[in-house]
Task: structure prediction
Amino acid sequence: GPEQYRCMLADDPLTFTCEEAHKRGIELLGWVNPFRYGITAGERTNAISNGSGLTGSDPIRSAHPDWLLTYSNGTFNGTILDPGNPEARAYVVKVLMEIVNNYDIDGMLMDDYFYAYGGTTTEDASSQAKYKPEGMDLGDWRRDNVNKVIKAVYDSIQAVKPWVRFGMAPGGIYSMTASAAAAYGLTLPSGISGGDIWKTLYCDGLAWVDGAYVDFMAPQVYWSTTAAKQDYDVLCEWWGKSISTLNARRTDGKRVHSFISQACYRFGPD
Result:
């Protein structure tokens, strides 16, 4: 219809989308994958060769190859911006703030792609040598790198548009490492098993709540109520109670909200 054509012809599709959403009383949040640079090996080269990418559209690889980590671990075979490199972290914050500053979005939601799925071994050896404090646990250092980006985005948004809500969408299972939850005086949910993103992606969702440098959490509880080891009800209750517990300990009045991310592809036609 006419609206479709207006969108296609719009000089700036995101401005158009914000305007049309707000006319209808709909909030619009941007969902971002902050560290992803290339999903597959040679992705940008292939895009250029088949005409779907612009020549010279690989500026980071050309000017700042030290910002990039390339993986080939069987689970993820691509490239990410290195969370351990301070310049790469600053670049991520700058890009996300360009969106916040230039568009009338109501919020921003960051996906759970930090360090790569499949695990990181020696891919970040260079940044370890340059930036990891001597004696600091490697996992703690990587989680701290991720946390620094999230806090920097939150603080930057608060400085210019505090009404824009910033949230995180970690995987639905916080961790399989009991000590990770115990560090916050919490226990893991019983009967749950699955991937440990705290250990492999260096994603510490409880740290963001404890530090209150997110406005909301939207865990991706993408399982059903009948899943044997990833029960939807159990996980939703755990996230809700954990966030409420950490909120209750605060003395500054700040509160982090919980909105569970739904897997719409699991909904049947009825």
